Model the fold of this input.
Amino acid sequence: MSKPTIILWSILSFIISGIYVFYGLMMLQVEQLPALPFIVASMAFGYGLITIYLLSLAWTKTDKSLVQMTKYIALTMLVAQIVLTLVTGKTSGLEWLGILIMSLMIGINWYSIKSVAEYHNQV
Done:
């Protein structure tokens, strides 16, 4: 994959991670937040920060374990989102659409970190 394509994927991943951080921060500013939304907000905020950190590490280091860490973090985030959706009760098909969109965003983050790590191993 060419370097400009990897840079575009990285920018998209950074924007997606920023969306997670922004969502988590906005939810955490609510004064009396119930327990379940607090957990979701904390996970979104943490996931966004961790993926930004891992993406920056992928650009500076050539460690293969970054891809493994990203894969496990993405899988944990996806499973947690599915579980939290099922706990709150599925009322319509929109919950599955939300999970589909989140899985796409998580997959983009994983793919961009994987692409950067593979590019640095080739060079």
The chain is about 85% helix and 0% strand. Residues 3-122 form one domain.
